[in-house]
User: Fold these one by one.
Assistant:
Number 1:
Amino acid sequence: MVALPMESHHCSCRRKRRHCLCCKELFEPDPRIKDKQHYCPRDKCLTKRQRLNEKDWRIRNPDCVAYQQEQSRKWHKARPRYSQKRRHDHPDLAAKNREDTRLRMQKMRRMFDKSKSIAFAKVRFYNEKEMSLFSYSAG
């Protein structure tokens, strides 16, 4: 039996890098996942991926979401003063909730700044005949 010479097998040790769908940065996907990894391992990106998966699940399972909402409604209806009692019994939790809400609303206001909205933006028109500039406020 003649032994054939072993061909030099160059394995592609360097994996193909991809752009993360969230942060757009290059990353090396986990080799166990193959071509299915679209988000890098950063916490921010993984959280975004998880939220999108949850949103997709809710869209695909509207009956389950409606059932969960109904169960929640029944639970709160059976305990009408639960939230008030909890806030009274745990003032530290109430203070933390107020602070968290304040910060969350600040973040929302920054994201949806009305001064940058098209409806509230001042649109400037140039009047060529008079060679003057005047403002028009939409809305």
Number 2:
Amino acid sequence: MMKKKALAIIFTLFLGLGIFTGQICLAKLNSPTPILPIPPENIGEGSVKVSWQWTSGGGTINRFIISYRIEKISSLTLEGTIAVTHLSTAVSGEETLFTTQLVAGDYIKIETEIFKVSAIIDDSNLNLDSAYQGETASELTAYRLYNPNPWTKRYPSAGVRGYTIRGLTEQTTYEWTIMAEAENPTDNSEESDIDAFTTKAGTVNGNGSGLGNGGSPIGLINPLAADTLEEALNAFINFLFWLAMAVAPILIVYAGFLLLTAAGDPAKISKARQVITWTLVAVAIILFAKGLPALIKGAFGG
């Protein structure tokens, strides 16, 4: 009888945790919309300020993700040859390897036109996102266009609508995107396609040492990926939240084990109850801390 009660308690606690942490969402988050002017505002050599708008809906937002990299177009000649038809989105290939060399979303160059691949059907057939405007032709060479540079990511908090990107190279063109990250990853928004920007040239001559007598600014790595105190606090609270969600089930299982093996021992039963009580208190405090900023902003119309 004691074992059945203990199992019932454990099941109830796990169900309670599921209610605390579960998220019900029927759609993806809305994508952020950059605010004009585009390109972003240059505020110094190697620094730009980007701004955006975002309308809530589709899930619970965790933060924004800004991705940027130096714009560079490289090309790879595709195997085989292709055939295209005037005003058609269909492309057929001869001895091509579309499924190996391309994925949906890649850009390809056909003659002088550049297209985005909307779907790969098989090694010899694919669809473009827009119709081919040239004359019907066959035995053409196609090229995959790509950027070999890795993306750098920054993580503004959900409450901000502007961010300063620092440590960029002056007089250099960058491409960038922004998306809304949800607490449930399956609800993340789509990335917003945005025009590239070019950083401005330095205005002070010097030896480039960055020690106060000229040159580009020195880029420092921010381990918290936070620009403000609010972003740092949000990052710390999120860390505590996920740590608690990982540790709480382990402690509850441990308490259940104590109950199952107590054999009527008052000391073990008391210890198990204490573990369960303080685990729930800790989870409640962390949940309150995580939701408090949103409550305050909602109360004051923020």
Number 3:
Amino acid sequence: MLPSNNGNSYIGQIVNVSPNTEYTLKTYIKTNAADAKVNLCIRGGTESQMQANAGDVLFDEKYGGADWTPVEVTFNSGSHSFVLVSLVKWEENTASSVYRNPAYIDNVSLKLANPELMVNGDFENGNNSWRKIGTAAISNNMWEGEYIAYEGQYYGMLPSQTNNAALYQTLELKANTTYNVKAKVAVQTGGEVIFAVKTPDLSGHYPGGTIETKIEGTGLSWVDFEYEFTTKTQTSVAVAFIKWSDTTSGGVYNGQVYIDNVSLKEVSKEVEELLRRMKSEREEKQINDFGWVWYTPYITEEECINNGTLNDWCKKAGEMIGIPTLHNHDLRHSGSNILKELGMDIQDIAELLHHESTETTIKHYLTVNKKKVKDNKDKFVF
């Protein structure tokens, strides 16, 4: 509580956080009067700066009212390892409602905004959390004096000379929710590994529809694996990397598989929701953005935002989300791949990017979706 008849007080707590990480703060604030607003402030810095109520301001907004007001704030910790979360009352006018009324804060919680769901995804804590079938192993083998692991010392392995091996974790997910899994995978040429979401004991496919994809061998060099899936009503699952063959010969049986840096996170719908809100707000205010996301009063149907202005905005946005190197050119790369996945002709993408030929677009901007290529190939019978 910040007492009444007082204009200079605060209550807060210093919290140890991970740098460049998004957190969600939830709390309730009340001031007994609609016109009495106090500041909810989040600062980042060193521990000594936090003790002095100093450091960088990460969030600062006014709240209050006669009834308890629910507050939910998402912020990025930036480069800081400590944050100070505080309710601040600062008012020099002794006749004001802020000065005369008390302020209350209750039920404060601070959690990761999008927490990592896989435990020990880098395998550095040995067998902890990972379950194994067959000859699957967690190893710290070396090759020519260097650890085989993508990072650190340990990695998951589905060895050669086996047709039934798996590494998996049992998790509780949310129903009807989209998740994104990422990993570093190395598969011997001719081999393959299956990523699958199955029943907790790994005995059956996911109820309501099979969730799995194959990663084919490209040689024992680390490659990026990424896959999205959406749950149905079943929430208890096994998330697994599986090596399976019904024979004791061939590429799958003989191929070795390495796995490292496994990450599973819920896909945020925040950006989609923000774009919908932006579109709705512009329609209500009769703002003609000519179909451009980035809007200034100077854009036209043919002329988009000035490159220098957009770069300044990207730099500021990057600092807010913990990517200080974000550049407007990064949006060209990600945007062109999204358009390709949605079915836009490559020649049209090249035209949008003002490339003289599609060769530049294909060579430097577009990436190959290997899963989509394989799925399309499987549609044809030879």
Number 4:
Amino acid sequence: MKKIDKTIIRETLIIAAGSAVLSAVMNAVFLIIGKWDITVLLGTLLGLIVSVGNFFLMGLTIQSSIGKDEKAIKTRVQFSLIFRLMLMFAVAVGAYFLPKVFNIIPLLISFFFPRIVILFRGFIKTKEETPQGENSHDENGFDDETGSSDDSGDSDGTDM
């Protein structure tokens, strides 16, 4: 078995941390609206484990596909997707039939947390992570290389 790539571990930890924050916020909302009980917490935790596990398995699939031919990659990725979705579905169905243990609503909401973390992460990338090129600008909106501004028109905002 190949060693797990550091990138997969790092990205999974980022997804796990962001999802944990969103889980805490969701539990706080349930508490505020007076609907919180232990089943909400257990549903959240199960959803968190399954959704982060899903992301991790996706990363492992991509890692194991590197260096294979295109047809093998396509087959492997499709099989992985079907397997991971079936696993998530099975967990959700199992939790649905155990309502005294798991609240299904926070479980299902938790499944979306990795996508939300990925979306927000795209908005808060640091300047070092931003690719340099034609569209790179400093904090004032000027092109880093030429010093010119994107704004068309006068810099003082008048139209005279």
